[in-house]
Amino acid sequence: MLGGVRPAPGRQGDGAEAGRGRAAGGAGGHPAGLADYAGLDERQRRVGLVHAAGNAVATALFGASYAARRRGDTGRGRLFGALGLTATSVAGALGGHLAYAQGAGVFRWQPLDDVAPGEVAGEDPAAPRNPA
After folding, report:
1. DSSP assignment, residue 101?
2. In the chain, what is the greatest distance between 2 CA atoms, to the nearest angstrom?
3. Which of 17-21, 30-34, 76-80 is predicted most confidently?
4. Are 98 and 104 within 8 A, CB to CB?
5. Is residue 18 part of a domain?
6. What is the arithmetic mean of pLDDT over 86-97?
7. Which long-range CB contacts under 8 A does 23-30 form with residues at least 24 apart?
8. pLDDT score, position 104
9. 9 by DSSP, 3-state: which?
């Protein structure tokens, strides 16, 4: 994810190590997201679709960054890396919104029929969920 950042002072590198890492890890989450997509409601599917598109754009930008760096065009490689990091950040924020605000995947291993209402909302639904 740090393809848009220069190497540390005194360290030489063309970013190839980072590029290989992004190439290996970039495709890991796509199958899991597609499996979760089937269980979402319509509102969650819209956000999930934009989240997936953002991840696909980020993967393409990181691939373009890697290709540019392999050709020796480190300036363009950094630009594509920074754009990929931006796309990853936006897609990640949407994924967080999908999981935490819209509740995608919540209680998916436990049918709601077996859960008492107090367990879902607590005894006082207006109370803070995680008081410190």
Report:
1. I
2. 62
3. 76-80
4. yes
5. no
6. 95
7. 23/62, 23/63, 23/66, 26/58, 26/59, 26/62, 26/63, 27/59, 29/55, 30/55
8. 83
9. coil
Task: Tell me what pLDDT residue 103 has.
Answer: 82
Contact 41, 49 (CB under 8 A): no
Query: Which amino acid is located at 27 in the chain?
Result: A
Query: Structurally, how many domains does the chain consist of?
Result: 1
Question: What is the predicted pLDDT for the residue at 72?
Answer: 95
Asked if residue 69 belongs to a domain, the reply is yes
pTM for the model: 0.64
The range of the structural domain enclosing residue 60 comes to: 42-104
Residue 95 falls within a domain, yes or no? yes
**Residue at token pair 């109370």:** 127
Spatial CA neighbour of 21 closest among 3, 4, 6, 33: 3
10 Å CB burial of residue 64 (0-12, 13-18, 19+) is middle
Residue 36 lies in a domain: no
Residue pointed to by tokens 């049918």: 111
Give the mean model confidence (pLDDT) for residues 89-109: 85
Write down the H helix ranges in 9-132.
Answer: 16-25, 30-37, 42-70, 74-96, 117-121
What type of residue sits at position 125? P
